[in-house]
Amino acid sequence: MRFGLGIPTCREGLAYPSAFADLQATAQLAQAAERLGFDSLWANDHLVTQQVVADLLETPPNFYEPVVVYAYLAAQVPRLQFVLATLVAPLRETVLLAKQIATLDQATQGRVVLGLGIGAYREELEAVTPRATGVNRGRMLEEQVAALRLLFSKPRAAYHGEYVEFSELETFPKPVQQPLLIYLGGNSAGAITRAGAIADGWIIASASPSRTEEASQHLHAAAVAAGRDPQEIELCVQSWVSIGETERAARDRLLSSQHFKRLRRLYPEREEAALVDAFARDELLGTPEQIHERVAAYRKIGVDHLGLIFLANDLAELQAGMDLFGEQVLPSLRAL
Question: Among 75, 218, 238, 303, which residue has the least CB neighbours within 10 Å?
Answer without folding.
Answer: 75
